[in-house]
């Protein structure tokens, strides 16, 4: 079965955004982009909440065409155009969207179906489904125990307040640390898998 991995930048005190959704504290440089790009290229399905999806749709489809496009912009734009996108939203309709599936209800059943499916590229290998940012979607999936791993980039900052990654957790979630990676900018990657009973 495929796994859902939550990919998130996080402050040292556990916030994924400031009180008004600010993310200007996140450190991301070429070293991180290269590291993340390798892992992302191995996935063929991206999961988003509505707000994050709209941000992505407004930028990535044409990012590679801009005169100031970086290597990262070109690579990620190419990946974004072919990746299968799944969006959790109660308000968006999937009419006219290319390579995109909307989930508006029956969250647990719909996610289970995606996890059971073969990879979107048609191969037999079980590729991870990456959940990008999307705190509200992450909280919904977390509360139903549908996240299989956390790929966290801990930024060297204490925000004191904001949108927390972990909220309304009813039962303990046991994690096993798979890898760590420090970056020269001060960010540390922590890659966890959820230990199922």
From TrEMBL:
Top-rank taxon, per record: Bacteria
BP term (GO), one: riboflavin biosynthetic process
Signal peptide positions (record): none
Gene3D superfamilies, per the entry: Dihydrofolate Reductase, subunit A
Classification via InterPro entries: DHFR-like_dom_sf (IPR024072), RibDG_C (IPR002734), Riboflavin_Biosynth_HTPR (IPR050765)
Stretches assigned to the Bacterial bifunctional deaminase-reductase C-terminal domain: 2-187
Protein name from the UniProt record: Dihydrofolate reductase
Gene Ontology terms, MF aspect: 5-amino-6-(5-phosphoribosylamino)uracil reductase activity
Source organism (scientific name): Runella rosea
PANTHER family reported for this sequence: 2,5-DIAMINO-6-RIBOSYLAMINO-4(3H)-PYRIMIDINONE 5'-PHOSPHATE REDUCTASE, DIHYDROFOLATE REDUCTASE FAMILY PROTEIN (AFU_ORTHOLOGUE AFUA_8G06820)
